């Protein structure tokens, strides 16, 4: 189906919005009236610009407070409409969105509303224009889609139909199944918007918090399926009022929007992009660093051994158990020092992983970095992290490890600290792009987003959301700072798993690992909250291990100090614990600030 | 009364919070448990630090999910409480805040709740500790203050009383008049928090949007009056959960908090700071500029004449009618170029204005900048704007104009563009400090805040709120950008009044004033919205004049282009129009971006 976006969903001037929509592959746009009014381009110039960009003018919107009014107001409203029809003629738009009235002038009289909308449609059709009538969730008398349809049915004019908006329908908890009873040709337009589930005034919710389908909690795909089932064949159009999108780069937002629509089409069964290939584990975590001294020391003190050197690039491989860390001194590095720059993901079919990502507009990275390198399938995540799709050590596929010449044997069990693998990675997302990131990991990699959490850093609330493979083999925590200010989120981390946190912690002490000091007050409180027995409490306190539990099991964790932007966490999960120790995050963050 | 603040209201480490509270003049603090847990200071060290700073430990909080539970849970909860009593003993805190349970363990049984709270109070009193029981607005069974009081009354223990929190009471719409029926000595603690009126889930509202009394829409002073009337004599304590305060400088937030409490004390009749002196008009607007060429040209083209030069500083005076603009090339200037740096306010008693401001913690500026200067009374507003209190041309007071040597006569009526005075000024507020600013102008100058508006800039929503003298002689619009990012709000403006916008606009054309081009689409829409007659529509369009109306009258306005951070607006108000043309702001902002 055609894909469209309302200009209000994107930032910038009307010209910038059109360019961004076209670049992301949209077929058409809804022209939001204020975007036209504020533009120095005349309607004719906008028409030409859109045509040049291959964008259809799907609808002009909104026309407000029209129906079910006294005769004198009707006369004014029709005069207003005639002005708009003339603008639309110049613009080349042949549908007008009319939203149900919120005015004090309107009365509760369906017959009057129908009769006046009939008049409006009659005048519109003289211009070749159709009228799509939409029930606003906060309309004064008409605020449900079935009510708007009853009025349209009663008005019975070929140039009058309904506009369905998923937000207005689902935010009120209306049952969308009645959509199937509307003849498809009378559904003139379909607007799709999601929103996080929030208990708040619906007008404020709509104006500030809408998001792209798949980024919130509404069943937008289910609603779209019913409209398509009813025979709707117009565009799928996104109309998103969102404070963050208003501030974000329009091109980036448009790509995010298109990714959302492709994912929705797949869910509805309208399109079949290449299937997602869920990653089966972490192949490696790659740290970009200006020099390796500090990280070498840190990794050594965690029981890692340098096992390889890349044959063509300044990259070292460090291993312990199945945990692999790459230190890359050749790439771009940041002022702050070492940072998590790339993630290797184990997948049964790297090429298929890339096809999936490409179909969802992820930038595909060059397969070979140098002539002698083994080919690598990789894409860029929205935050710039490079995702490599790997099949490590399988005879049927070239392995990235072949590019590394052995530097030393992996540590003997006696030298190791008992670390077995990477448990999860935590990536810092740019301030504006949290929902974009979770949709990306869900749609591209087939990971499931958990609940969004708020973590109290001493200098602001941090939002955190993990995306997880169904079997838990890949977990990525996405963290976003409260704002782009001076306290921008400094930290990413690599979390390593151990089967015995106490033995590992003791070994790390022996190895001189620089661990984050945890305040004694935390342990006093832990004793108040849990009775784990005096011995366990003493052990946790003396080794700086934090503790959490959920209904499935227990979680023990400790941290290193931060090097550059990166620190390491070491965890033991028992009995199927699913979380990340979020309730201890404020302790860790305060300790990190104190330690800096 | 003693003044206190909960540590959760301020950003940073516990040590930073204590320092900020003490520096702002607080007498005591509520220790928020997580702040202690995350601190590397032991309870004993915190006790000493607070004592050094002269801060009392007013209460330790919160203790959750205690009452009306089965016997086994009670045993665990009492064990947990004993741990807390020991921590409080080390800390030197002798009151514990217990909030009503939200746990699934609690049952609806007032007698059981009373009996168990009696037990808790009994154990607490062995440590010399009192228990203040607070009804959370979202408590499972106990969520109103009168309910919490019935339970406390029934428990009948000298170490058990209630804690009243204005947010929990007023957010639910409870009638606070029942507070007077609680014996004052049984009100153990009074927490004060305001919040903007929002229709949303009360828990989310409380956790993210609380603000200092006078910054929101709740009658916090009325509630405090009733508690004091009942005989409460503990501290007035602020407990504010606010996403912005979490990110802001703690010292600045603490000053804002103290200003709020002083204003509340005045409203309640507990304190009598020097009375506010409402300014009677604008004496001048001062622009700091690295050079005067561009602004001289602009002012000349607006019909201003340079009428004076400061005798000791590089400052020029420009006049037209009663509008006076100072150009100062001597002060600090910004990278962006000219900016509005100071405002002269006419007041009947400059020294009294300063006394008022000083009592509300506004920094007082030196009275003489140079030996020969006339003394000037001035303070700094939160955004750094200098506010000068002036008595221009009155024989009973030195006039700032005496420091200026005449440079030319004011323009003859023939040379003038008909500008009569400054209508209003628009100041850009730092991202985090919008509520602080409106409280400052209300409490220090006695200006009344209008509604807060949202203006759609192409790159984000801008919040705007005007503060106005009752007679409209002083109006200041406070604008704040959506975030501190790359699209930080660039613009301040000086709005000048004319009695005849059309004549002024024609004169400005003749003078070659650089006016902001307004899109033709705006005028097409204006014709659709209002039938002002073809002649008026033609005139507005040809002269680039925007139009608005309210129930009181009409508003005509036009803009110059921006020089540095500053532009000028010229307005005509008719028939008592009260607004600022907010509905046209999106047109202006888009035109400004297009023009840059």
From TrEMBL, chains A, B:
Residues engaged in binding Mg(2+): 424, 493, 569
Domain VOC, chain residue ranges per copy: 421-561
First-level EC class: lyase
Top-level division of the source organism's lineage: Bacteria
InterPro entries cross-referenced by the UniProt entry: DSD, Glyas_Bleomycin-R_OHBP_Dase, Glyas_Fos-R_dOase_dom, IolE/XylAMocC-like, VOC_core, Xyl_isomerase-like_sf, Xyl_isomerase-like_TIM-brl
Alphabetized UniProt keyword annotations: Isomerase, Lyase, Metal-binding, Pyruvate
Cofactor(s) of this protein: a divalent metal cation
GO molecular-function term, one example from the UniProt record: isomerase activity
Transmembrane spans: none
Catalytic reaction annotation: 3-dehydroshikimate = 3,4-dihydroxybenzoate + H2O
Keyword Isomerase in annotation: yes
PROSITE patterns xref list: VOC (PS51819)
Residues annotated as signal peptide: none
Pathway noted in the entry: Aromatic compound metabolism; 3,4-dihydroxybenzoate biosynthesis
Protein name: 3-dehydroshikimate dehydratase
Organism this protein belongs to: Actinacidiphila oryziradicis
Lineage, broadest ranks: Bacteria, Bacillati, Actinomycetota, Actinomycetes, Kitasatosporales
